[in-house]
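User: Can you predict the 3D structure for this chain?
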Amino acid sequence: MKIIDVRTHVLEAPLSQSLGHSFGTSTTRSACLVEIETDNGLIGWGECLGPAGINAATVRAFGAYLVGADPCATEAIWQTLYNQFRDRGQKGIIVAALSGVDIALWDIRGKAHGVPIYRLMGGPLRTRVQAYASGGFRLDHGDPFDYIVREVKDYAAQGFPGIKIKVGRDVREDAELVKAVRKAIGPSRKLMIDANHGYDALEAIALGRQVADQNIEWFEEPVVPEDLASYREVKMAQPIPVAGGECEYTRWGFLNILTSRSLDILQPDTCAAGGLSECKKIADMANAFGVRYVPHVWGTGIGLAAALHLLAVLPDNPPRINPCEPLLEFDRTEHPFRQAILAQPLEHENGWVPIPSGPGLGIEINPDTIRKFSST
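Assistant: Here is the predicted structure, written as structure tokens:
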């Protein structure tokens, strides 16, 4: 079996209202999908996190190294692409593009063997995962103490065991919002806060101390991702566990985080940090360091499916009788084609999401949706 073609699909759709976070607002949702075809008719799908057009151009640049290769040689292809581009591509777009290719190759590999990806990765350790609702963005109108509180109450009513909201704008206002959300969802549900690196260390420490009594599960990206020293300061100076890693790449980047003990919880994105091949290595390192792994998930149903297959094989950490199993980030914000690209959406039931059990990623792509939202 050989690869005969590598195609990219850049999808884009406007939002009905902008979504605000600590450093800007989003008015559209976009994605770069990777489609790899083999000479025996098998097709694999992947997804790259980040600027869709730039990712697509990078994937096309990989084509010369992919066409004619054995798609089941996932490790050899990963090493070839990384080594060819590593002089200027140890992080960022190159690795995100490589991630989309790697996921598509795993999809082909599973289909070639007639088994789900998690079987080839040594699993499953679980067949469903608990999801937390990810939302709490700022809108361009209204009072966040009204619309965010209503939003989180709706997530609670849907049965989500955990909810994540955005902070990172103003310490005093953010602290009051966290308290209002905790009151709205009750004391037993998990509550996570995500600053999208909107604070400096002093502000992050101040917020952590002000909401320490609100039983926060983790404090995500309190400071800029490059500044591991500030992460360590925040981790040591306030009691909430510190999470991050969606802006980090490959085993080498996460080795620095782990050896410096900068984070309590790692959050690599499977569509950015190196794909399934690399994220399994990162997860194994995290396990050896005793650090929890909760993948960042932010894209279409393809990226969601890839994250689910990885979650199927992540070991319990620590391996006790009642383990702390990994959680799935379940984006609840507006996304016109997130589930529409799938013939069968990956939805939750009372906060639980089943892991697809069909061959490869276990999903079927809806070509009409690809055509409808294609921007190229």
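DSSP finds twelve helices and twelve strands in the chain. The longest helix spans residues 93-113.
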